[in-house]
Amino acid sequence: MPRPQLLVRVGHAEAPDTALRVAISVARRLEADLDGVQVVPLAPAAFGVPEAMPLQMDTQHRQFEAAQARADAYRERIHAAGLRGNWHVAQGDAANVLCHMTAAYDLLVMARADEMRDAPLGYGTISHAVFGCRCPVLILPEDAPVASCGARILVAWNGSRESTLALRGALPLLIAADTVHVLDGTDPERTRDPLAPPDADLRTWLERHAITAHIEAFRPDGPPGPAIESCADARDADLIVMGAWGRSRLSELILGGATRHLFAHSRHPLLVAH
Fold this sequence. Notes:
With 274 residues, this protein is an alpha/beta fold. Helix content is 38%, strand content 20%. It has two domains: 5-141, Rossmann fold (3-Layer(aba) Sandwich); 152-273, HUPs (Rossmann fold, 3-Layer(aba) Sandwich). The two termini are 27 Å apart.
């Protein structure tokens, strides 16, 4: 059986190693290969000043070489964990690089760093990656400790295309999990419409994949984002699986929504798809 292929975005040498540390844990749980990539950013603003171009080019060249020099250290670290994988270095816009590379992977792992705090507004690296990547994205809270990921999974389900993609993308982790808890937020009024197509039979789908899950109705009194986070806390979940932007991004921008809240504030890893 083919081994899952994971890609982790690794920060510069002085950055926290949350993404790599958790990616190693997930790869071991899934018996997957784990490739790493460091993206060396371009600084286009500097090219507007001709006098700054030589210095800027030299700086970026040295950053690129320093990133390439980390290949042996990366391989040694994942080999010590019993894994195999390759090291990649790219230059340019991080979201564009990641969206291009993920065509060859089953999951992208990346941390929510301070530089990405604009992501909930839809214009940050994470938001662009989730929209453009060709695989699910595991988003980690870089500023919070993550002791484990995938042992106790909470699924936020609403029957949308996005939540279906996230559920399918999380299938290997769901199969390997110790516990799976599903918050079923499908609209009960929808089932009363004789013209509406039938919703997916979630329980049957899970059982056919030998996944034992506890499913409960999810009808929060307030905004769904904080309610999902509270449920994850109450069940000691170490991963939330959900669709991203189950309604339009414009609606999320104006009205708020679960995606916007959790991208900005979640203390739990998020496996999302759009």
